[in-house]
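Weekly puzzle thread! Below is a chain. First person to post its structure in token form gets bragging rights.
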Amino acid sequence: MSHNIGRLITITPIGIGPNHPINSINYDHPQEPGQPSRFVILHFNNASFPANNRLEVNLGYGKDVFNSASGSEFWTRPINVNALPSGNIPINYIQDGAATGGVQLVGFGRAHRIHEGANPCTFTNCDIFLHTNPYVEPVYDTYWICGANATTCFSDPKWKNAATLPNDLRDAARKAACMIISAHGDHLSTCSATLIADDLVFSAGHCLAISGTNSPADLSGALSASVVLGYQTDASGNKPATYEPKIFKVLEVVEYNFTTDGKDYLILRIDISNGTSGISPLPMRTDLPAPGEELFAIHHPNGAVKKASPKTGDFFSVLSVSTNSIRISIDVAGGSSGSGLYDKLGNVVGTLSAGGRRDNLGNCSSTLSYFPTATLLKIIGTTPPPPTVNRDVMIVIDRSGSMAQITQTGRTKIEEARDAASLFISMVQQGGGNRTGLVSFANAPNLDHGLAPNNNANKNTLIGPAPYSGGIVGGLIPNGTTTIGGGLSTAISQFSGSATKDEVILLLTDGMQNTPPMIEDVEASFGNRRFCIVGYGDASNLDGPTLARLAILHDGSYTVAQDELTLKKFFASCFGNIFESGFLMDPDFHLPRTTNKAKPMPFNICGEESATIVVGWDRVDSQLTFNISTPNGNTISLSHANVITDRGKTWVYARLTLPIDGEQDGLWQVNVFRPSQGEFTPAPHNLNYFVNVIAKGGPKLHVLSQKKFSYTGNSYNPLVRLSYDTNVSPSHASVELFVKRPLQSTGNILVNKGMQSTLQIDGDTIPPIYASLIKIKDDQAGKLVDYETLNFKLFDDGVHEDGSMGPDGIFGNPIKDLFNAQGLFHSGRLQPMAIIVKPLGKRCGQCM
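Winning reply:
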């Protein structure tokens, strides 16, 4: 470590204990002239603690206790001298079982505002106890800051106060980001780090190197080191009212490497014998990111409070990747070394290792290099366990007047929505820490059921007993206008903002907002909660661009259900995306009235711990059921002891815990058939149905494509990552993208057909544009736009711009001539995708 935040002072040894003249002192350390001490660490040696004798040092926020297990030499944690009377530090040798023993105080480290070396532009301020309010920023080192000038000392670093990050996975990374303080040479020094286990922090090897590359770790520096978590101000730069940093002593160096070939990593173990930090550690990613993937960083430049990069926007892009280096371009300073690089899923991806300097005019001559966690984990042969995640889900349902419209089945939209919601609620597993709530909205929102644990009582309150068409959901009646923003704001108010919770909104709407508050009015409160949005209808009644933009900005999915069957299917899709690993299969089928048994549908199991099979159909006067064939040809009925099943009016599902009867991996089959209903079985009907197979414990698809604007005629590379919860990617996997794209633009259709006046449906006001599209659709027998479905194979081979020279779990394939018309591009297969495309020259968003 070389970043200078204060001096090390050697003193004439002061003996304390029975072997010396005194047992206790109030040590008054000498301060730097004109610079009050921010904190002090004390250095002791020649320690002897026979029997249960010990040394106690008052830290101003607790105490350090040293005994025979501490060895003969040790350092204290940072001491808040300003919290102690007159700044004196009480030190007491406690006799407990022996009349001999003692220790010597031989020196101390003193942190204060100080120039770093000979650089006149650097004035550090490592004020971990925030003695000044507001916090006084350092004069930052111009060396690694774009646009800075080492002659005039001007700099405008492109980072922001980490307290301004939204309350999402970035907030979890902010809390896990920390700082290491240690003695180095003749001064105190800092590096940044990340908490990766309750008792482990991850940083860069050069932060503890004795000298340069290939040098061993400085074990005396590790002996002096402490780790500080929670060193930050509020968003305005002020000391938080409940500010209390958590400081832990370093016990040992667990992993260290700093070599000329680019290896640069450090893992330290901290002392949690008196309790953990209460902060959730971050998982370490096991594969390399792709060039173009969006990441962010959190660091302590010049010993300052936490900073987040980039300064504007949410993420920056990876420039290039190799085994020992992830290259990016951001501003940093001394003390940023060892800081974490994080992905959008909350994984730590790398640690800041090296970077080229800026010249005296501030020109950015090169980029920064982060050593990847993927390479580290391969070297040390460790795969971290997946973190435990509890989920809070608020279901938000539109009950405006337009939901009274009749669907193709002869039922109203609200009836179909009730069925879809009852399927979702019934599928959520009971027990554990998951919670579900319900909000409905028309001209005003209503909190129908606050967040509550998933159990039988709350399930019955929400949807009633089988066939789950009652309860609060069954009583939703459509009438009035549409305030989507009001519904979402009410749902958001139920969330606690806990870093240990995955907070998700499941939104169903069939219309466009026409009553305040609008989405735009309340969006600032959304943070970065995930959204799973299902639009019921098509361009004649949905404000697709607004809903897609909402999904884009909140790492969610937007899908469009044009009929009651796909509505249920997409609610099952949302369940899979929120609670499970995703889909193995989700095809649609038709069962003629002359056929009682469908052709078996195969699916593969490869390591999944459970599978949920959902069958939904389009008529309430008919029933379907199914059984499952195992790889060995055995039949698993829905009454099997290892199967959990439930049935609604138009759906049935079964959850299999695997292995079942000793079988797991291999080719399974779903066998759908009409159940026998005895002597009075009604006449069969033609049925449209779907089969969803939802996996848990298997790999998930994560979207890596940048949230950029697209134009008609643009090419598009749908970068996705396939990985397990452990961050390991499966080998020999294949990924395909299915896209349903419009063949006509709604804008052209309106120009050709003309405009209608405002329309009223059960109190819901339909604007002229959408009223015109409804009229056109009615004139065209319910069909507004023609679609075609295309499929594209994605590759993990380094050739199709997936960002690597070989297989790494990241798939891509640049697609040309996909965006041929403006409108909604949609994929409802394994990973729902919605892309809004507008004519060249107009900006538009995309979401997967």
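Puzzle host: Confirmed. Bonus trivia for everyone else. The mean pLDDT is 84.
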